[in-house]
């Protein structure tokens, strides 16, 4: 077995999608704290990426902000190229960017909105993983984490959130299949379910018109907030990185509660 220095995160290069805020930002900062040397942050909002970049620098890593709309597959490719040009080959990919929209009655869904969710939550992480995995295999070391949701295990808890549940279920199936594809190569590919986390995504759901997204769904998310069950992004990001540090395994469904 290789020693911890070879297996560890120290000195590695990472990409974190959705690194501008929320769980992605907290994960990027936790990676820097774990010794990752270079981190590319990908999202659409430059000002938020810059803010995370400053936090990463303060934690001792070199950041690069890559502004891209990952729902566009051409942008996915150019984002990886931009990250590798500036930071070198990627050792760690955290596919965290995601959308919970569209929410509401299935009968009222618009095809364009459903396809947009699939492009960001499923197509982008698959293309990103595909862009970096062979390089990782050639170097016999790589880590890919696909951020999913506990809703996959209990989709009935999210009436009106069926598209979101479906995209995350698809991502989980692809993750486990890809992990088997890269078995025994040193490339570990796992799912991470981050738990209910107090981020802009939860805030956005609470701000929706209950009539538009469904009263039961709206009440459920108000309840998460009021009952004090939401985690902080820092707790969830730290738990993701703790999985990476402690678990030499692939093809698993990791849950935040395993490392809280
Ligand atoms: N919060 C929760 O309770 C919870 C629970 C389970 C799972 N999750 C999952 O955790 C992940 C992070 O969620 P979060 O709560 O931290 O959400 P968030 O605060 O809304 O952050 C989402 C991040 O993704 C980026 N993003 C969104 N659309 C994008 C696009 N088209 N192209 C590139 N980047 C895009 C956002 O930046 P821009 O808008 O600037 O592009 C932002 O940086 C998601 O995959 C989510 O499904 C969250």
TrEMBL record:
Record GO biological process: fatty acid biosynthetic process
SUPFAM superfamilies: NAD(P)-binding Rossmann-fold domains (SSF51735)
UniProt cross-references to CDD domains, sorted A to Z: SDR_c
Single GO term (MF): oxidoreductase activity, acting on the CH-OH group of donors, NAD or NADP as acceptor
Pfam families in the cross-refs: adh_short (PF00106)
Alphabetical UniProt keywords: Oxidoreductase
Domain Ketoreductase: residue ranges: 12-197
Family: Belongs to the short-chain dehydrogenases/reductases (SDR) family.
Name used for this protein in its record: Gluconate 5-dehydrogenase/3-oxoacyl-[acyl-carrier protein] reductase
Taxonomic source organism: Actinacidiphila guanduensis
